[in-house]
Structure formats: structure tokens, C-alpha cells
Amino acid sequence: MLVLATLAACPSKATLGRHLAQRLVQIGVNDVFSVPGDFNLNLVGCCNERNAGYARSRGVGACVVTFTVGGLSVLNVIAGVYCENLPVICIVGGPNSNGYGTNRVLRHTIGLPDFSQELCCFQTVTCFQAVVNNLVDAQELIDTAISTALKESKPVYVSVSCNLSAIPHHTFSREPILFSISPR
After folding, report:
1. Single pTM value for the model
2. SS3 of 56, please?
3. Which region holds residue 32: left if phi is over 0, alpha if psi is between -120 and 50, else beta?
């Protein structure tokens, strides 16, 4: 909670990461579950991705996992919370935004240069999917994902390119619209 609240309360740099943290705090997310991996924040560490189901007792939950290897592991949990009508924000540390369209195989993938493999898996067990690989529409995608999770009381998938979270951008300096929808 301290890390998330601190990120959300410090408006000195209007970044994607701060915006996402602020929005999670606004909807009552006190804990973000993660498995230590490449570049994960120091959040609530878990031994595996199944702990993301904590939303069952909290009303709304969030987890952060690595691209593909973590995403495919948490997929069973997300399918479970989908069946239980629980809003969970599943945040994936996606590929570097410069990697899209390069036809390169990245680590933590299934060995294909197609970055949409993980997204395709999540489409049937989430009510909204967002791939944030540029800063221009990041705020809208994140806010739409969170509001859809709350409105539908279902999990959502948000992939954020790993190189974007700390970059300041003018779109995040605007005061965001408060969410008016509470989880069911």
C-alpha cells in the first residue's frame, strides 16, 4: 500500500506509472500482487501468479506479471475470477514499444515474433483488453480498462510496454475524471 499510495500522491512527474498507481488507489486497490521478475516493482511478492485471486475477498484486485511467461501462468486465475464475476486489473509488463513490428523473437515469449499470442489467450476470459505501447492513448486505454472492470465486475487485461512507465507525458498532467462506478 505504501509504495502504491506514494506513487499516486507524487504528481511531480506525470508518468504512465504514476497515473496507473493513482487510478488503482482511487478504486480501492490497496495491494498489487506480483511475482518477482524482470523489472517488477517492489509490491506484494507472491510465490506464483495464483495469488491474484485475492480480489475475491477485497472487492477489486490487481496483479502485475511478466510478459507471456507470467501472463500465461496467471491465465487460470483470471479465468476463475471471470467465472466468479470479480473485477481484477491484470497488468502485464509488455514488450518494449520499439520491439513491435521488428519481427524479432523476445525472451519470455513462446518463440514467435508475434506479440499478440498472450493477448489472444486473454480475450475469452477478460471483458476488456488494452495494449499500451505508446503514451498518446495510454490514459484513455487504462481508464477505459479500469472502468469496464468495475462496470462489468469482470477482469481486464492491460499490457504496458516495459519502457513507457517512467516517461513523463503531458496527457498525464491533466486531472483524471473520477470513477463513479463501484464494483458490484
Report:
1. 0.81
2. helix
3. beta
